[in-house]
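ZP: hey, is the adenosine monophosphate complex queued? I don't see it on the tracker
AM: it wasn't, my bad. submitting now with these inputs:
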Amino acid sequence: MDDYQHILLAVDFSGQGDYVAKKAKSLADKYQAKLSIIHVLDNIPMPDTNYGTVIPLAEDSEYPLLEAEKAKLMRLGDELSVALADRWLIWGIPKQEIINIAQQQQVDLIVLGSHGRHGLALLLGSTANSVLHHTLCDVMAVRLQED
Ligand code: AMP
């Protein structure tokens, strides 16, 4: 079996996200793989800007909500030593954008939580379930329990 070369961590900044992030980091270290992170903005209104759905992280915007999300991603990226070019902040539908970036960036393992902001009602959350069913690469769903 080939080692993983490029791992994509999907973060929604919910309560147990740090635990999922640590698992992804430890796998990346173990396999000496590149680590990328993605956060999809699905819960704040899209401001009227010139740029498309991929948010440029190096530019400041005048939108406080956007800056707050950017700051969270930057903090996590720094903690995990992820290169700036491998931090993705994108507007859209989480499952779609996670799958798109994974394909575009030739990711071979996606790491996400079994559940996120959308609650523990299902055995596997809807984002996790959909990514698992529609991506071509491996997916690791880190089992999250109720707090
Ligand atoms: P869910 O299936 O929506 O309950 O979420 C399961 C997991 O999918 C979360 O623990 C995250 O790892 C990932 N995820 C959910 N929403 C997002 C998002 N907006 N951006 C990036 N990853 C997400």
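AM: back. DSSP finds four helices and five strands in the chain.
ZP: great, adding it to the tracker
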